[in-house]
Every structure is written in structure tokens, then in C-alpha cells.
Fold:
Amino acid sequence: MSFPLNILAFIGQIALHFLTYLGQVAELAKELLIALRSGVWRLRLVAQQIVAIGYGSQGVVIVTGAFTGAVFTFQSYAKFKEFGIETTVGAVVSVALCRELGPVLAGLMVAGRVGAAMAADIGTMKVTEQVDALRVMGVHPVDYLVLPRFLAMMISMPFLVAESVSFGLFASYLVTSVGYDMPATWYMTHMVDHTNMEDLSIGMIKGFVFGMLITLISCHQGLAAENGAVGVGAGTTRAVVISSLVLLIVNFFLSIALNYVFPIGAT
Amino acid sequence: MNPTLTTMIPRTIHGPDEIFIDLRGLRKRFGSQQVLDGIDLQIKHGETICLIGPSGEGKTVTMKHVIGLIHPDEGDVYVAGMHVNVLKERQMAAVRQKVSMLFQGAALFDYLTVEENVAFPLLERGLKDKAEVKRRVMAALEAVDLDEHAHKYPTNLSGGMKKRTGIARAIIDRSECILYDEPNSGLDPIGSDIIDQMIQRMQKRYGVTSIVVTHDMRSVFKIATRVAMLYRGKIHFLGTPEELRNSPDKLVQDFINGRSDVTC
Structure:
């Protein structure tokens, strides 16, 4: 085969793999919808997953949100001061945290912590035939393994995003008031005046979407695992990498789409 | 009647000559390897059929076709009149209510205790009466001599105990057919005999149809009503244990007597 044909075949192979992957994730999403509509939600498993996903992720989300808020404020304040608008730093940090940094950072942290755990747990069950054992007992793996994780993620993500934003703002407030001696009223007034429900809604919507994507991608990697421990390890790595990349890419397009619905600075 | 097994009577009683499992022209390939190359096998209700043959010849693959864990490239699988290989995963529940399976590695859920593992099929089928679940779980665990280990997690069990827990989970749901994938491997001779006796009891008293994949020839001669030997993706031998013992076929005799052609 000639060189250009080789390149073409290579690109074709990548496109085929990508389309196959999309098809598999779409199939999983379809099964998840069927499971959702069945109404058998196994609330005990959902509660266990809320503890693992929501409660267990709080520490990492709070620390990430807080230090990002602090460093963002620290860097912005100096530049804003050059223009004499340092009192507006609260407004800028607040809008940035609500619309972008809060949901994205919470999403990335959850993708790393929870996505990896989902892929590893389900992957281990797959390679040790526990998933087949479920099927043999008439239990659909998506109903038992994916649905509780999905519901727990949908419940947990808004809280995690809210925590990330809140602690980011609190840290930002500490940096300006303690670090730069800026009167608290200025910070609070600007922040409250320039942050509205639309900004918060964007953060929450993104949290839902990211949670959904992380669950689908990670559970798919778990259910597709094969070749023993090596396969589980590879699937776990892929779950984190794909979730993180997809999250960042989707965030860009979601920001544009949501800006049409909730234009920035409209109120 | 053994009181511990009275709760495991299958739901439906069929005639002894009725074919329960019908495999027609099964072919299955994994990559470049043709694992099954035209398997035809009919199993009557209440039979215990042992699948024997060298490792990697498709015994477990054949068994997994019966319960729809693997679908054939060609051929058909019928279980209790249901055409298994055309059913979708969510339609498979009807087949899986009639057939249960013991996996080679037991496939116990790590996060559940022995008792919870065994109770799992009952709870998932919607049995709400906790006392009834407990009674049936303890009966199944007694049958495999594990009632004293009910609260242990699988990580704290030996390989043999895991396997016996898997058997308790497979028999608890009153299935009409049980598939055993190497039930004796990893068991001591006494434990192995307990399992053999239990398989026999399930067949003789309750008419349970069984497929047993095994390499233990002592067990084969004890429990089988018929034996199928798989070789190179086909059924090389099919007959009663007596016919197996008296078969003039060299491959069969080498296999059952554990003789290899390898010279040192």
C-alpha cells in the first residue's frame, strides 16, 4: 500500500474506533434511560453511592475550590489595582467561580476520584465474572451498577459545585480582607451586585452535565474491561483521561450555548 | 427427604423425555481460534450431563451459550422451548429464571457476606419475607456445610468455601436447571464428595437438569447420566459413563486415564 493510502487507512481506523466508542456509550445511555424508566431504583445502593461520591468527594472539592479562589484573587487584585478597580475583584472572582471554575474544577476532581473508582469497581467485577453472575441471576448490570451511581452523581454534583464555589469565594474574601486590607463591604457589595441567579444556574447545569458524562464514560470503561488486572488498570486510566478531556471540551461549547440562554452581564 | 433441601424443589415438573436444552450447530470463534465448530447436543429434563475434554476445547463456552452469556456466530440455542440466541439481554430474564449457574471462580460479590451473597437471587426476585429468605439461605448453606460461616466475607474464605457458597447461591432459587463450571476444582476429597452427592440429590429427588463441566473423572462416573467429550470444537464422544469407560477410542481412553503422549 502506498504512503498516502496508509495514512488514509490509519485515519479511517481511528475514525472507526471513535464511532464504535460513541456507539457503545450511546447504547449505555439508552440502557440507562430504560433503567430510569423502569422505576426500580434500589435506593439503598443510591444512598451508598451518595456517601461514596458526594460525601467522600467534599474534601478534595473544597480544597481545590478554596485555593483556586484564593490564588485567582491574589493574581487579579494586583493587576486590578493598576487600573484602580481592585474593589471589583469580588465580582469578577464570583462570576468566574459560578460560571466556570467551580463546576469545571469540581468536575475534574470528581472525574479523578469518582470516575476512577467507578471504572475500577465495575471493571474488577467484570473480569472476575461478578457482572456475568448478575446477568445469570436476571439482574441487568446497568440497572444494578450504573443507575445507582448515576442517580447519586446527579444528586451529589450540584452540592459539590456549590461547595467549590462557596469555599472559593470565602478564600477570595479572606485574601482581599486579610491579605490586602480591603474593606469587607466593598468586596461583598460588588460580589452580590454582579452575581445573579443566572450565574448560579449555569454552574448547576454544568454540574449536572459533567456528572452525567463522568458516570457514562467511567461506567462504560468498567463494563468494557477485559484481560484481568491489566485491563482494569487501563480502563481506569482511560476513564479519568477521557472524562477530563470531554469535560473540558464540552464545557467550552456548553458555555457558549448557556451564554445565549443566560447572557453574561444581562442584569 | 433431606429437610435442608425441601426449599429447593424446582418450580415446574416436566416429563423425563422432554428435551430441556437443545444446541443446534453451534459455532463460535474468538479471534483466529474456532472454539466451537458445530456442536449438536440435546439434553433431556432431569439429566446430568458432564462435559469433559482437554482445557481450552470450549466446555465453558458451550455452557455459557445455554444461559445466554455468549451468543453463537452460527447455530441455535433452545432452553425450555425459548430461542435463547435471539433474545435481547432484558428478555433473557425468562430463561434465567429457569437456569442458574456456578462460575469457575464462584463469582461471589466481594462487598456482601456469604449469607447476603446466597440471599441475593431471592431478594432480586422480589421475595420480601425476611424470615423466609433467612430460612432458605440457611438451608442452602447447610446443604454445602457452610452455615457456620454465614457472616464471613468472600475474602475470608478458602477457594473451596467460595465454591460451595457459589453452589448454595446457584441452588437456592429453585431453578429447573443448574450449570456447574468445575464444581470440584479446589475442593478437598470430602468437600468434593459433598458436592457430588448434592448434584445427585438435586437430580434424583427434584428432577433438576444439570450440566457439569469437570476434569474430575471420579466425579463424572459418579454423577453423570451422560457424558459429552469435546475435542477440537466438536463433540468427540457422547454416551453413558459405562459407554465412556468401555469406549475403544484411544483419545477417550487416554483422557479418562490421564495418559499423555509426551515423552521425557
